[in-house]
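User: Quick one: structure for sequence A, then sequence B.

Assistant: Sequence A:
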Amino acid sequence: MIAVGWDGKQRIYGCSLHLDLKDGKIWIQVNNTELDIAQELVNRGISKQDIVIGFHTKYLRQFSGYALA
């Protein structure tokens, strides 16, 4: 999900949310929203072991409760 457009003469472009599907897992690459998108996915029946917090290093992922990769 991206914001694209113009505000007067100012160009607007920014990534709000970026999810990838890799090897059967959902990778959250960017989350610049107020939503806890990982928890929203869990609430909708996705296993925590199928969600990777991709914007954290592998070292930090071990503490997240979600998949490492």
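Sequence B:
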Amino acid sequence: MKRQSVRSYVLVGVQFVCMGAILLTGPWFAGHAGFFTLELLGILLVAWAIFTMRITKVNVFPEVRTGSRLVTNGPYRWIRHPMYTAGLMILLALVCEFFSYWRGFWWVLLSADLIAKLCYEEKLLREVFDDYEAYCLRTWRLVPWIF
């Protein structure tokens, strides 16, 4: 297994600080039907992504594990980073349900961090998988038809 870089530790650290700041400053379940639906869709998406990838293969760090395979089925058929998408959906619902400027700040910082992390991760994936560029051409990073 490849060693994680300092960059990876910083990206993952910021990710978890932001998630914790949001989760510790408000309810964990949205009460409004629209926000609850967004949260539920995010939970279902992350479950589908983990099921597709297999829980034992999930890695919070961007470095590609030795012996990894490129997953292109399930939600990965359309979105290259469905777990990031799901996390942003879930936490957006919670921030909107119980909004404060601080919670909004943490969500924006989390979004920026995850975009930086996925850019770094994609650079590493291109180095490992010859067919990653072709995969990128037919999928979206986070949100279909937008990004």
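Helices lie at 6-23, 33-53, 82-97, 101-128, 132-137. The chain has a mean pLDDT of 94.

User: Thanks, that's what I needed.
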